[in-house]
Design goal:
By secondary structure, the chain is an alpha/beta fold. Helix content is about 40%, strand content about 15%. A six-stranded mixed β-sheet has the order 1-3-2-4-13-7, sandwiched between helices. Strands 10-9-11 form a three-stranded antiparallel β-sheet. Helix 8 crosses helix 9, helix 8 crosses helix 15 and helix 15 runs antiparallel to helix 16.
Length: about 400
Amino acid sequence: MKHLKNTAVFAATVSTLALVAGTATAGTVKWWSPNFHAPRAVELIEQFEAEHPDIDIVVEETTSDGLTQRVITALQSGSPPDIIDVQHGWVVGYAQNGLVLPLGDIVNDPDDFIPAALDYVRLNDEIYALPFRAEGLGVIFNRGHFEAAGLDPENPPQTWPELVDAALALTGDGQYGFAITGGGEVGNTIFRSLPFIWMNGGSIISEDGTEATVNQPEAVEAVKFYTDMLTEHGVSPSSTLENDGTANRRLFIAEAVSMYQAGQFDMASIASENPDIDLGVMAMPHPEGADTSAILGGWSFIVPTDAANPEEAKLFIEWMARPENMGVYTDTFPARQSAMEMERFQDPSLAVYGSVLPFTRPVPNHPAWVQISQAYFDGIQRILIGQQDVQAAMDDAALDIQDLLDQY
């Protein structure tokens, strides 16, 4: 069949994108799906087309590298594809600029969706995307390392003090107990450090989006806990300032790191590249008397405002949103709670990740969030290189963030 093409070979230019997307004819739906989703798309398309023989779905693979720019270029080109898979956190920005259509009319049974997933894609009480994938980070650990250090892998750390104690016990002879991220794409550090702030009762900005709060005591204490893994305790590798989640996974596979924050999407790579590791998973430890927390990650379907066949696209998305189809398409967890009942999500190795979902939250819904994240990340880096102490770094970050907030 003609369904699957690889977009790694087509140029990310407006003219090329317009050519690729602009060839759509009535009844033909162009769909951009990331390479990690697209292989399962073929099976689903065949089923949909059997039910709707007058609609032809053509899927093209995208890749993560440069995807944010490729999508925005397509949305602004005047001739985008009809459906695009995007990360939840990108949707509100598109909606604010009138680049996507509202999809609330095809979100059937909204109470069945993970609440944070719909919160991500809602603007002014209107839903602008249909979430299909959901995930939250946990902590992957090496059970063999735990046993060698005299720790019980059946009872991993639950609280912040227990995490530090375990990390210290696991560190030595070129091995590090708990790797944090401090480099790479900004989102790596946001996804791993912001939940510590939430657990501690803090925030980066106020709920109403008018005040920078990252330098308040609760946030500062949490940032110190996170960065102390390198600067105070020395349980994170010296390469932390450059390391992103992928680098930490490689260190874990090499058994140079005993614990690191990751999603279930890392588990297959670890099992494939070092099957000798006895893998364990735990929720991110929390302060005494508090709950764990995680940022909700995942993906949603959008329909561009300039889509050539929006009604056919919406019909297909509504079909994909059925629990039995959503559960097939996602490679982590589905955004619908009823789809979680499928057999593939009952794997005991996924139980911890499933238990984290009720404690996930979306990042703040603010039009300047990308710049706010950068200001916070820059402060984290100043701490990690020893340029500033935590309070000073977060004070400076708060000044930069407040300047951004005051523009709205």
